[in-house]
Automatic annotation (TrEMBL):
Keywords, comma-separated and alphabetical: Methyltransferase, S-adenosyl-L-methionine, Transferase
InterPro entries documented for this protein: SET_dom (IPR001214), SET_dom_sf (IPR046341), SET_SmydA-8 (IPR053010)
GO molecular function: N-methyltransferase activity; protein methyltransferase activity; S-adenosylmethionine-dependent methyltransferase activity
Gene Ontology BP, a term: methylation
Name used for this protein in its record: SET domain-containing protein SmydA-8 isoform X2
GN (gene name): SmydA-8
Species for this entry: Drosophila pseudoobscura pseudoobscura (Fruit fly)
Length: 445
């Protein structure tokens, strides 16, 4: 029952699926979560092949759909390796690997579960090299492909839905599989049908999967989840819909702004507060397209100046912003002295600001972060720059999610001011009732 042939059974390619066939697969996937008269439908899109469209006028804040994850697995990120792959609880420092020697981290309660049994047999059949290691350790390279392995154990229609989804043919995806294969003694690398299907699945996951937060026993873990309908929505840098996740396994999509009947329902593939250039690089490198939305064609981004840096000319502290909007290496111009600077120079300043702030985020306490934001950042970074906004978000997040009673009145006041700064930017962008707004105003816990 666990041979490669069995794993490939009923996985006939359906990559030329019509919108009507895809809609049927999505309906089966949604099950009882599908509304009798949904306010959305799937149709051909001029943006990217197919998309989600409003069947009637939808008002801001209205629920569009809810969707359970088709498959969920670990992100295999550093710092996320010591949680059970099934229930996501934090594991002890010793004895945390499966007793059956599949080398997956799993708690005692889940080790004999139906969920874990199939993947455990899978990994043991491939003979993990780490199974004989004297010291227990989790290999992130093999852990990363667990989500793909779980796809093989889905039902027939569910596997058809995975195969119907778009996947970028990224060379790095194949490298991911090759590196994972090297963790096993008996990985079926010579089985071409299996390897082709695995490559396809990994491509689908890397193109469409989301990182969804899951809270278990008061601790937050990021899961890697495939939500097909949510993934079908096309990108806009300031989208008219917004999604969030309920404990890592349920996606909830609501209208951020009013959406007219027939309008395409859009989401964002990037962080909404990133600057134009950062979003453009991310989309080009990971999604293989350049966005041409109104925001991307405005180098001030509705007057938010999220990409702005300080001018480096002596005696000038004006804001410098990219001149061109449709290139990843634009010239930059100071709005005060009007000097023009090459992208290579400004990119070094941006990288310096990004690295400096990220290092502080990863190492500083909340009081130290507040001091850094208020007293040190203004020396090298304009208050509008997105990396400083990220630092403010980090303070808000830590103060509202963890140890909320330990902060002084003054620190809480700084947090509230940061929140107002970010809400003002979201308003300028026209982000409406987006998820980030709801998160920082604590409408979503």
């Amino acid at each position: 029952m666990n041979t490669t042939a069995t794993m490939l059974a009923h996985m006939a390619p359906c990559r030329d699926t019509t919108p009507e066939q895809l809609a049927q697969l999505i309906d089966m996937h949604l099950g009882e979560l599908r509304e009798k008269k949904p306010n959305w439908t799937l149709a051909a899109s001029t943006v990217a092949g197919r998309g989600v469209f409003a069947t009637r006028d939808i008002v801001a804040g209205e629920l569009i759909f809810r969707e359970r994850a088709l498959v969920v697995g670990p992100t295999a990120r550093k710092g996320q390796l010591s949680t059970c792959v099934c229930c996501h609880r934090l594991l002890p420092t010793q004895g945390f690997l499966c007793k059956q020697r599949c080398t997956l981290p799993v708690c005692a309660a889940c080790s004999g579960s139906v969920t874990h049994r199939a993947e455990c047999e899978h990994f043991r059949r491939w003979q993990p090299k780490d199974a004989d290691a004297e010291e227990e350790q989790v290999n992130p390279l093999s852990l990363r492909i667990l989500t793909a392995v779980r796809v093989f154990h889905l039902g027939k229609e569910q596997r058809h839905l995975v195969d119907a989804m778009q996947a970028n043919a990224e060379r790095g995806f194949r490298q991911e599989i090759i590196k994972a294969a090297q963790c096993f003694r008996n990985f079926p690398t010579t089985d071409k049908p299996f390897m082709d299907q695995l490559f396809r699945i990994v491509g689908v996951l890397n193109t469409n999967a989301f990182e969804a937060p899951c809270r278990t026993d008061g601790r937050e873990t990021l899961l890697r989840g495939l939500f097909p309908l949510t993934a079908i929505m096309n990108h806009e840098c300031t989208p008219n819909a917004s999604h969030y996740f309920d404990n890592g396994r349920l996606a909830i999509v609501r209208a951020a702004r009013d959406i007219p009947k027939g309008g395409e329902i859009t989401t964002t593939y990037t962080k909404i507060l990133w600057g134009n250039l950062t979003r453009g690089i991310f989309l080009k490198m990971t999604k293989h397209f350049m966005c041409d939305c109104t925001r991307c064609n405005d180098n001030t981004e509705n007057g938010t100046y999220l990409s702005a840096l300080f001018c480096r000319e002596q005696g000038c502290r004006g804001l410098v912003i990219p001149v061109q909007t449709r290139t990843l290496q634009p010239d930059w111009r100071c709005l005060s002295c009007e000097n023009v600077f090459p992208h290579s120079k400004m990119a070094r300043y941006q990288d310096f600001a990004l690295n400096t702030i990220n290092n502080r985020i990863n190492s500083c306490s909340v009081p130290d972060m507040i001091h850094f934001i208020n007293d040190l950042c203004p020396r090298f970074c304009p208050p509008s720059n997105y990396v400083l906004i990220e630092a403010k978000l980090n303070v808000i997040w830590r103060m509202t999610r963890f140890d909320t009673d330990q902060y002084t009145t003054e620190e809480v006041a700084h947090k509230d001011r940061y929140r107002e700064d970010i809400l003002a930017i979201l308003h300028k962008l026209g982000a409406g009732e987006c998820t980030l707004k709801k998160l920082i105003t604590e409408e979503i816990q």
